[in-house]
Design a protein that fits this description.
By secondary structure, this protein is α/β, with parallel strands linked by helices. The chain has helices at 79-84, 112-115, 131-142, 206-219, 241-253, 268-280, 289-299, 316-325, 332-337, 353-357, 378-389, 405-415, 449-455, and strands at residues 9-10, 25-26, 31-36, 45-49, 54-57, 103-106, 126-130, 154-156, 162-164, 167-173, 182-188, 191-195, 223-227, 258-263, 284-287, 307-309, 329-330, 342-345, 363-368, 392-396, 419-423. The protein has two domains: 29-233 and 404-455, Ribonuclease Z/Hydroxyacylglutathione hydrolase-like (Metallo-beta-lactamase, Chain A); 241-396, Metallo-hydrolase/oxidoreductase (Rossmann fold, 3-Layer(aba) Sandwich). Bound molecules: zinc ion (2 copies).
């Protein structure tokens, strides 16, 4: 249906289109194609393609409900296997050893649902991101967190134009629950496009997200791709990162046994919030060495009074760093002697620490957006079994990395693109901005700007 509405141009400058029957014609319209992430939370892969260049942004992976996956002992033999089942996008140039000057990949931020497929890109492909995102991916890899392999990325200054062929792009910082997150502005010969990446307005730096909205508005984009992660959520009060510290302090203060917490190491500020809360209730925070390794690289200083879990199996860079900073290490017997004196990190892959704490293990576990992320993960039920077995109460105290639905709609209305496409959502159809045409894209379909405008429609809230 969309191929019929494509506009074909004569290659002859100034020629009358009717006079060039039989001549070679070249379609010069820029095409937008999605290879993932239109109806899932994460896994966004979008390509903007002109006659001479391609820009692909984000390269993450999420499991799609109806798609085959490789898991456990069923492993892909090659990149071709991953392409065959649609996990890797069908963009041949990404896997080829030539044509690299015509194709680039941009990464909005370091979360796996935006980066997981990067290791499969051909060596010569330029992969761009912000300097902070590059740094985060480097330290995560050094700390052996989440099996993230080392990646070669080009870190660029935010707010500076870069180019691949006739496409220009720049990163604009946004606030999200990890450092370095950015939106991407893209300028093609016949359209301007804004991709929000993931963003929120209730974190430590809402002004950064607001400045992005203002910059995007002034850019006057034709197309806005906007995340709609929370479009399907029940409306509920939103907790700021600041308010969350108070809730954690109250929870810690009401507990006599050990307090455990599980934050996402890719969110160092949240980890440090737990250190601060522990300090306020006179508990000593105990962190995994790898968690503090990541946090220390982003704050430039070490929090005071922290202890490190004893661990004989640290990755080399972390072990060397720990030796250099000389932080005191602590083992389970010392924690077990005075359970009410500690607030300890308990990561899912370190649940065996409960075995070492033995009879002192009971207490309160505060889940704060760490892994497993939610009940959709099979590890979630197993976590509950471990905690129940050791008499540890479970409590969830966190806050989202994503803007609420109403905020997302306000962003669309403030930027006022000619058409907006909600993506990165289980319910993109619930994102309704008043007075602006919306289009819900299908995957693996090429859209020109004319296609999007012709098929977009004004929608109203029910
Ligand atoms: Zn995401
Ligand atoms: Zn994210």
């Amino acid at each position: 249906m969309f191929s019929t509405s494509l506009v074909w141009y004569s290659e002859m400058l100034g020629g009358d289109p009717s006079s060039c029957k039989g001549e070679m014609v070249v379609d010069k319209s820029t095409r937008i194609t999605f290879f993932g992430g239109t109806r899932t939370i994460g896994g966004t892969i979008c390509r903007v393609k002109t006659a001479t260049a391609q820009l692909v942004f984000d390269m993450g992976h999420v499991v799609r409900p109806s798609s085959p996956i490789f898991s456990g002992s069923l492993r892909p033999r090659s990149v071709a296997d991953l392409r065959a089942v649609g996990i890797l996008p069908d963009i041949p140039e990404l896997y080829m050893d030539q044509h690299h000057q015509d194709v680039a990949v941009c990464i909005s931020h370091n979360h796996l649902d935006h980066t997981a497929l990067l290791p499969y890109m051909a060596n010569g492909i330029s992969i761009f991101s912000t300097k902070e995102t590059c740094q985060m991916l480097k330290v995560i890899s050094e700390a052996a967190l989440e099996e993230q392999p080392p990646l070669r990325l080009i870190g660029v200054e935010t707010g500076t134009w870069q180019s691949v062929g006739d496409l220009s792009f720049q990163f604009v910082p946004v606030d999200h629950d990890t450092p370095g997150a950015a939106a991407i502005l893209i300028s093609a010969p016949d359209m301007r496009l804004v991709y929000t990446g993931d963003l929120r307005f209730h974190g430590w730096r809402p002004e950064v997200s607001r400045a992005f909205v203002e910059k995007a508005r002034r850019f006057e984009p034709d197309v806005l791709l906007i995340e709609g992660t929370r479009a399907g959520d029940e409306p509920r009060p939103q907790v700021t990162e600041q308010e969350l510290i108070r809730l954690v302090v109250d929870a810690m203060a009401g507990e006599d046994g050990i307090v455990y917490f599980n934050a996402y190491p890719r969110h160092p500020e949240r980890v440090l919030s737990f250190v601060r809360a522990a300090h306020e209730v006179n508990r000593t925070a105990v962190l995994e060495a790898r968690t503090l390794y990541v946090a220390a690289h982003f704050t430039g200083r070490l929090p005071e009074g922290v202890r490190i879990w004893a661990d004989s199996d640290l990755p080399d860079p972390v072990a060397r760093w720990l030796q250099g900073v000389g932080l005191p290490v602590i083992g389970p017997s010392e924690v077990a002697e005075r359970p009410s004196a500690f607030a300890v990190e308990l990561a899912y892959d370190r649940l065996w620490r409960l075995i070492d704490l033995d009879r002192a293990a009971s207490g309160l576990y505060i889940h704060s957006n760490g892994a497993p992320l939610g009940p959709f993960d099979p590890a979630w039920d197993n976590l509950q079994r471990w905690l129940a077995h050791f008499g540890v109460a479970f409590r969830s105290l966190g806050t989202s990395g994503h803007a609420a639905l109403g905020e997302i709609e306000q962003v669309v209305e403030a930027i006022r693109p000619r058409v907006y496409l909600p993506i990165h959502s289980f319910h993109p159809e619930r994102v309704v901005a008043s007075g602006i045409p919306r289009f819900l894209p299908e995957e693996r379909v090429d859209y020109t700007l004319s296609d999007l405008l012709a098929n977009a429609s004004l929608t109203a809230r029910d």
